[in-house]
Amino acid sequence: MRSYYIAGNWKMHKTRSEAAELAKALVAQLKDGKHKYLVAPTFTSLETVGAIVKGSNILLGAQNCAPEEQGAHTGEVSVLQLKDLGVETVILGHSERRHIYKEEDELINKKVKLALKYGFEVILCVGELLEEREAGKAEAVCESQTVKGLAGVALADLARVTIAYEPVWAIGTGKTATPEDADAIHAYIRKVVGKLYGADAAANIIIQYGGSVKPENAAQLMAKENIDGALVGGAALKADTFVPIAKFG
């Protein structure tokens, strides 16, 4: 039985004091929440936020990691450093990493396998551009990113992988895929996982939706058969918008 998983990606927002204020509000307001929760602040706020969410029902996530354990990689942050800070989950393959910073599937896959090797849970993001959707390629793009992102990942490790479907055209634009459109792609991704790992794995994998999730549309999206949660961006930056999403229904 799949359970709902609501994650907040704070992206490049908030100083440490601002992050602490939000984390304290979320710990207080979500303590009676029924679902799985995560917040992913910037690297500079991880230690601060980690101390606040420790012992609560909110997991600590990082927004990225380096593809190597350590070494001459100026500006990067390693899995060893994240583990040292108490990070439990790493978000990988986010559309901003793919399209702004030109990360390709091979690099993302390397990060996925490294994070899993060190015991992290992973949120693997997949999703199509507007022109890809309009060309009828949404399913093909999501299939390719899922297959390549999971290449070499063992069935035993798949239990620590969540997939987040984020149509790139709906991120931060106010546009949202209709619940029906989103569910159709989620169902397709589940089918792809089934082809790779079998029916049980497909039935059990958590697939989040990410793309302008708001308090007004969260319940409609979560009501769909194949949507198991949300990877929330802009609405995760305030308790008064994230908490209603986290407590939908």
3D architecture notes:
The chain has 249 residues and is α/β, with parallel strands linked by helices. The protein has one domain (5-246): Alpha-Beta Barrel (TIM Barrel). Helix content is 42%, strand content 15%. The chain has twelve helices and eight strands. It has helices at 16-29, 46-53, 79-84, 95-99, 105-117, 130-134, 138-149, 155-158, 179-197, 199-204, 218-222, 239-246, and strands at residues 5-9, 36-40, 58-62, 89-92, 121-126, 161-165, 207-209, 229-232. The protein has an eight-stranded parallel beta sheet with strand order 7-6-5-4-3-2-1-8. Helix 1 packs parallel to helix 2. The chain is globular and about 45 Å long.
Provide a short characterization of the protein structure:
With 249 residues, the protein is of the alpha/beta class. The chain has helices spanning 16-29, 46-53, 79-84, 95-99, 105-117, 130-134, 138-149, 155-158, 179-197, 199-204, 218-222, 239-246; strands spanning 5-9, 36-40, 58-62, 89-92, 121-126, 161-165, 207-209, 229-232. It is globular and about 45 Å long.
Layout of strands and helices, then pairs:
Elements: E1 5-9, H1 16-29, E2 36-40, H2 46-53, E3 58-62, H3 79-84, E4 89-92, H4 95-99, H5 105-117, E5 121-126, H6 130-134, H7 138-149, H8 155-158, E6 161-165, H9 179-197, H10 199-204, E7 207-209, H11 218-222, E8 229-232, H12 239-246
Parallel strand pairs: 1-2, 1-8, 2-3, 3-4, 4-5, 5-6, 6-7
Helix pairs in contact: 1-2, 7-9
What would you say the CATH architecture is? Alpha-Beta Barrel
Principal-axes geometry comes out as globular
Discrete helix count: 12
Mean pLDDT, rounded to whole units? 96
Indicate the CATH class: Alpha Beta
Number of strands: 8
Low-confidence stretches: none
Q: What's the story with the biggest beta sheet?
A: 8 strands, parallel
CATH topology: TIM Barrel
Radius of gyration: 17 Å
Structural class: alpha/beta
CATH homolog superfamily: Aldolase class I
Q: What portion of residues is helical?
A: 40-55%
- First-last Cα distance: 18 Å
* Overall number of structural domains: 1
Query: Proportion of β residues?
Result: 5-15%
User: How is the largest sheet built, in terms of strand order?
Assistant: 7-6-5-4-3-2-1-8
H/E topology pattern: EHEHEHEHHEHHHEHHEHEH
